[in-house]
Amino acid sequence: MENKEISQAVIGRLPRYFRFLGELKDEGVERISSQELSDIMNVTASQIRQDFNNFGGFGQQGYGYNVEYLYEEIGRILGLDKTHNLIIIGAGNLGQALANYTNFERRGFLFKGIFDCDPTLYGKKIRSMEVKPMEEMEDFVRANEIDMAVLTIPKTGAVEVAGRLARTGIRGIWNFAHVDLNVPERIQVENVHLSDSLMKLAYNINRFENMDLSGFERGSYV
């Protein structure tokens, strides 16, 4: 089952399942049906069952899903049953904001170091980390068993830094730079384009404003 090819669409829904199930668990909910979960998440019950069947199903006929068990299993699938050591490349506003976001630690993502090429930032304390020069990055990664690197630098330097990271044996890159990275297949890359997300929001607002509202009486809901 672990070797089965899972679509990115399914993988993309797993963190959302995990979040909602965590809220249900905190509220003391012990079990839930796919239909009840569907009503909460606005995902069809059949889609939920199909998603979970990729990993074995988890449910029992006539019972539904045990919330705590399902929460823990999805966490295991997501790799949240272990800790991950990370570094941040880029000590600007975004890098500092990520370093100060404590919820990552509760999920097992531990920031161990932060690096920048600006000498005026060297030694600056961000939480428990001091900003270090880029020249120290490779040795730090190897000495501290770093799993992932977060790139919050301009795209002009991201490609070169990704190449350096690849030679350290890093396993994953969370890339906020607006550039595609050419790294070995063994390194997983998750691209985050904040402006793309904002433009998607603008598109949806524009689409809604231009919808055909002929079936409604304008102002009737005021």
Automatic annotation (TrEMBL):
Write the record's keywords in alphabetical order, separated by commas: Cytoplasm, DNA-binding, NAD, Repressor, Transcription, Transcription regulation
GO process annotations (BP): negative regulation of DNA-templated transcription; response to redox state
Q: Which GO terms describe its cellular component?
A: cytoplasm
Report the coiled-coil segments. Answer: none
| Pfam family name, one | CoA_binding
Q: Name one GO molecular function term.
A: DNA binding
Q: Where is the CoA-binding domain?
A: 79-180
Binding of NAD(+): at which residues? 90-95
Where can this protein be found? Cytoplasm
Listed InterPro entries? CoA-bd (IPR003781), NAD(P)-bd_dom_sf (IPR036291), Rex_actinobacterial-type (IPR058236), Rex_DNA-bd_C_dom (IPR009718), Tscrpt_rep_Rex (IPR022876), WH-like_DNA-bd_sf (IPR036388), WH_DNA-bd_sf (IPR036390)
Q: Give the DNA-binding residue ranges.
A: 16-55
* Domain of life where this protein originates: Bacteria
**Main subcellular location of this protein, as a coarse class:** cytoplasm
NCBIfam families noted in UniProt: PRK05472.1-3, PRK05472.1-4, PRK05472.2-2, PRK05472.2-3, PRK05472.2-4, PRK05472.2-5
Please give the family membership noted in the entry: Belongs to the transcriptional regulatory Rex family.
What quaternary structure, including any partners, is listed in this protein's UniProt entry? Homodimer.
Instruction: Enumerate the HAMAP family for this protein.
Output: Rex
State the protein's purpose: Modulates transcription in response to changes in cellular NADH/NAD(+) redox state.
The name under which this protein is listed is Redox-sensing transcriptional repressor Rex
What's the source species for this entry?
Parablautia intestinalis
